[in-house]
Amino acid sequence: MSLSETELIYLMAYVDGQVDADEIPEVTALLDRSDEARQIVAQHEAMGDWVRESSDARAAEAGADRIAGHVLAEIEKLGGASIIDLERERVKVALRRQRVREFGALFAVAAAAAAFWLMPSRQSGPVADAPTAVTPAGSVRAAQPAPSASSLVASAPSTSSSGAMASATEPEGATDVEVQSVDSPSHPFSIFYVPAATGLNAHSSSVVVWIGE
Amino acid sequence: MTLTSRRRSSILTTLTAALFAVTSGALVLALPVDVARGDAPPVTPPPPPGPPAVLVVNAEVMVLHAISLDAPPSIDPAIGNLPQLRKPPLSAYNTYRLLDKRLLPLQMGHSATYTMANGRVLQLTFVEPTADHGFHVKAAINQPGGKAYLKQLELTAKPNEPFFVAGQQYKDGVLVLAITLRR
To answer: Any CB–CB contact under 8 A between A178 and chain B?
Structure first.
């Protein structure tokens, strides 16, 4: 072989179309003067054709030209999926989180302000118009709005045991009548604090001691 | 973060701070003045000389018959103005009639008795006047020859403010005692 390694590299680059334009005259001159160079170029071109043809056939056989369609078809077989714009979705999620934080803070502040404004003054009288009943044990419970006598007796604590006595617990706020104690050994009883009036005198309350037979 | 969202966040932060300031101001205003200022509670001045001690009080006892009728609510005009009758638990009965009305003078440390329509005896005792111009009294309802219905009820009441003792069964209804202490 009379061709140098550099000349062989140039010839292969020439077949592949990789020779610069200013070097092509040199390669053409080599092909003109060397049969061996022409044979090598012919062999390389034949080999290139064969490689391209065979690889194209294998790619077509493997469906390389419709690879995206195949992938989507396979996804559809698995139940489908929507293709989303990741960046847009990230921005949306971040905005949603930010709004939740902002509105959460605003809501908390508004709730605190409403609680302060709605909180009854400690100097005001009883708010509820309904009376409260004090059981002999001293615990305060809300009275039934309009109990019948029988329900009152039924709801009153059993004091059939001897020595049923209770110290009354007055509701918060001023009362004009305050019960200190009730001693009813044989009869159940309840103590009701009843608002005596409404309006300006709503602070006033009186007492109903209900004693069952 | 974009410029717009940064601006919005800044505006919301400002709004939040303003709301906190308003809330804090409302809280401070809601506090009593001495607490808000951090002052110690003022020394209570000595009470002015009160009226002479009450040695006798008049107990007005009204015996009411409460029943439930299939009729519009009715309160005997002779009872007078007792709004408590229209409130629970007394509102459980829609009809009130005045059976009797007595004025029992009570001397401090002494008792007075009154026999009711069902035979039971109401006993009222004036214990002492209270510092807030009220009266400390005791009440008892006894069944002659039987167990006490109400062994003792001890309470303080302001003048002209009635208290009620209710629940005694009487003629398809109950008896309601409205007791008012008057000077």
So the answer is: yes
Beta-bridge mates of residue B180: B60
pTM value is 0.49
Give how many domains chain B has, as a whole number: 2
Is B66 exposed, middle or buried (CB count within 10 Å of its CB: 0-12, 13-18, 19+)?
buried
* Digit-coded pLDDT (tens) for A94-141: 999 999 988 888 888 888 888 877 765 444 333 334 455 554 433 333
Residues B86 and B25 in one domain: no
Phi-psi region of A138 (alpha: psi -120 to 50; beta: other; left: phi over 0): left
Of B89, B86, B162, B92, whose CA–CA distance to A143 is shortest?
B89
pLDDT digits (tens, 9 = 90+) for B112-144: 999 999 999 999 999 999 998 899 999 999 988
Nearest to A187 among B26, B91, B149 (CB): B149
Residue B47 lies in a domain: no
List the domain range (segments joined by +) for residue B70. Answer: 56-182
Residues B27 and B103 occupy one common structural domain: no
Q: How far is residue A192 from each of residues A136, A169, A189, A205, A207, measured CA to CA in Å?
A: 11, 10, 10, 10, 6
- Inter-chain touch B161–A176, beta carbons under 8 Å: yes
Cβ distance B172 to B67 under 8 Å?
yes
Instruction: Please state the length of chain A.
Output: 213
